[in-house]
Specification:
With 372 residues, the protein is of the alpha+beta class. It has one domain (3-371). Helix content is 30%, strand content 27%. The chain is built from 9 helices and 17 strands. The strands form 3 sheets. Strands 1-17-16-7-8-6-11-10-2-3 form a 10-stranded mixed β-sheet, sandwiched between helices. The longest helix is centred in the last third of the chain and has 21 residues, at 250-270. The protein is globular. It starts with a strand and ends with a helix. It holds the Pfam family RAI1. Its EC number is 3.6.1.-.
């Protein structure tokens, strides 16, 4: 088996000044509608508008019985991202060049790897026309979700499904479908009773770079603070929405600090400047909101926290790992990128000697081949 390994440790080799970073810039977008149908538009874009003060504390359990939950057990591969890239290339008449094309979730896992020894991941990759395409290994994702679902909740805590719902309920309470001035007051005040549906999503596709690696990343964006700028070069005021337990003690504070690693990496990768955190109690009552600027998070962790992670190390590690990955995944076939739980090593090994598996859609391959 054609196998390679990249050692995450020792981390000291990734300290020092940051690798070069190219600010993420949106080059395309797409939506999933309320039935999770793909749409090449921004119809699912949402606008941030916080819950009414008079409705706080808000019960995040409300409406759980009517939750319109997305079944994400099926394997969607990179299809939506690739369809969007095809449309972009048709529109611009030029190839969307990148060393790596993937979902934001995959890059988040890689970026967090130096300080997330506990969790593992599995991804599939293939090399085509000078780019590495990376997707999640769906079977691994589903197996992990099953393990989580079967975990016994802590005494006095609800099930994993209910706790996951809290996050979606918070999003429903904090967004509107149009700008504030175009939204009727009843609509804003009625969000507490709105049926929660996580099938609809707005996904931004950005061009970015870490170190010497050029990336095109697609990822869901929760909301926009105001509206998109008229000049495409200007950054977009995206907002990421998160819920977490109120920081009642030092244990909760450390847990939150570790959570901030993922919050930061996710937002950093797509160029989301602001994270709104909804703090809740153990029963799912939303108590307060806190606004955090993404770029300040690593400094706060270093200065005020326990120093459980280092943003510089994450960036430098990602730059070095991607550079190494380009030297490994550079021929036809399919590959697995794997980090086992509690392992300090990322393994990359070949699964199939030729072809691209199901990672690339036939539509995308046909389009790209036609352009050659």
């Amino acid at each position: 088996m054609n196998s390679h390994a990249y050692n995450i440790q020792p981390l000291q080799r990734f300290s020092g000044s940051n690798a070069a970073i190219r600010r993420p810039k949106e080059i395309a977008y797409f939506s999933y509608d309320d039935e999770h149908n793909f749409r090449l538009d921004e119809s699912s874009l949402r606008y941030y508008y916080p819950p009414q003060a008079s409705q706080m504390p808000a019960d995040l359990n409300e409406g759980f019985e009517t939750f319109q939950k997305l079944d994400d057990s099926g394997d969607e591969h990179l299809d939506a991202l690739l369809d969007t890239i095809v449309a972009l290339e048709e529109n611009t008449g030029s190839k969307c060049e990148a060393d790596i094309i993937t979902w934001r979730g995959m890059m988040t896992k890689i970026m967090a790897a130096p300080f997330d020894m506990l969790n593992g991941f599995e991804m599939n990759a293939t090399y085509f026309q000078g780019s590495i395409f990376i997707e999640e290994n769906n079977a691994y994702k589903n197996a992990q979700k099953e393990v989580q679902r079967n975990q016994r909740p802590q005494p006095g805590m609800p099930s994993q499904d209910v706790m996951a719902y809290w996050g979606y309920k918070f999003e429903t309470l904090a967004v509107i479908a149009d700008t504030w001035d175009a939204t009727p007051r009843e609509k804003i005040e009625g969000r507490v009773h709105e049926v929660v549906n996580n099938k609809a999503q707005y996904c931004s596709v950005v061009r970015t770079g870490i170190g010497k690696t050029k990336l095109v990343i697609g990822g869901e964006v929760d909301a926009i603070w105001d509206s998109k700028p008229t000049r495409k070069e200007d950054p977009i005021n995206w907002v990421e929405l998160k819920t977490t337990s109120e920081l009642f003690n030092d244990k909760e504070k450390l847990k939150f600090e570790r959570k901030l690693l993922k919050f930061w990496a996710q937002s950093f990768l797509l160029g989301v400047p602001r994270i709104i955190v909804g703090f809740r109690d153990r029963t799912g009552m939303l108590l307060r909101l806190e606004e955090i600027e993404t770029h300040t998070i690593p400094g706060k962790v270093k200065r005020d926290g326990n120093g459980s992670w280092d943003g510089n190390v994450c960036i430098n590690f990602t730059a070095a790992f991607l550079e190494w990955l380009k030297s490994v995944v550079n021929t036809d076939g399919t590959w697995r990128i794997r980090k086992r739980e509690k392992s300090p090593v990322i393994e990359v090994f070949k699964l199939e000697e030729s072809g691209h598996g199901d990672i690339l859609s036939s539509k995308f391959k046909a389009w790209r081949t036609k352009q050659e």
